[in-house]
Design goal:
The chain has nine helices and five strands. By secondary structure, it is an alpha/beta fold. It has one domain: Nucleotidyltransferase, domain 5 (2-Layer Sandwich), CATH 3.30.420. The chain has a five-stranded mixed sheet with strand order 3-2-1-4-5. α2 packs across α6 and α3 crosses α4.
């Protein structure tokens, strides 16, 4: 059976609290939004963020301007990265390394990073709002939302934590492997990145199980 196409009219102009408020009204005050960054990269970890917003806080207006992290510029992401850490009820960031991605596969490794982000929270959530993916081995009620980072403010905040943290780590990795320009491509498979892979081969932080690297190694 063909998958039902997602109705893009369901995406609001900016992420909001529609899903969070429904849960808050039902008595669930600890709602965690979860998202990842770097799932499609050729190098580096996959990183997940988890954020619990405070339903009673007046500072929720401080998150006006939060979007899916991919739609924000670096300055805006950095600004909200600090705001989310300072003003959210709880937050956590988790990682799964390139080696774990190669060993487990990208989906299980992404789920692992999300679980690690949840474990970093100083409160146990009562419900999870997750961007697209599911967490079958986490014993908490959850809702998986297509385009969740564009629809749920909690998930959008989590996407910012994951994106900024991961980008920062890739910039640091650039100092160790400057030829690969990780400060620019953040590990994504740009044309320039693929050219360096062809010329120099992969580093230890590359995902050797991903098709472009397998092909490079097979023809080495």
């Amino acid at each position: 059976m063909a998958r039902k196409r997602f109705d893009r009219s369901l995406i609001p102009k900016s992420p909001n609290l529609k899903f969070e408020k429904q849960l808050w009204k039902s008595g669930l005050s600890l709602v965690a939004g979860i998202d990842e960054a770097g799932r499609g990269c050729l190098a580096g970890p996959v990183v997940a963020g988890a954020v619990i917003l405070d339903p009673s806080a007046k500072n929720l207006k401080s998150f006006n301007g939060v979007r899916d992290s991919k739609e924000m510029n670096v300055k805006s992401r950095q600004h909200f990265f600090a705001e989310i850490k300072n003003l959210s009820f709880a937050w956590g960031i988790g990682f799964a390394s390139a080696k774990e991605i190669d060993k487990r596969g990208i989906v299980p490794a992404t789920q692992l990073a999300m679980k690690r982000a949840l474990n970093k929270l100083n409160e146990t959530p009562q419900h999870l709002l997750i961007d697209y993916i599911s967490l079958p081995k986490v014993d908490l009620p959850s809702t998986s939302l297509v385009k969740g980072d564009a629809r749920s403010l909690s998930i959008a905040c989590a996407s910012i934590l994951a994106k900024v943290e991961r980008d920062g780590r890739m910039v640091k990795m650039n100092k160790q492997y400057p030829e690969y320009q990780f400060d620019r491509n953040k590990g994504y498979g740009t044309a320039a990145h693929r050219k360096v892979l062809e010329d120099l081969g992969p580093t230890p932080i590359h995902r050797h199980s991903f098709a472009p690297l397998r092909l490079t190694e097979e023809h080495a």
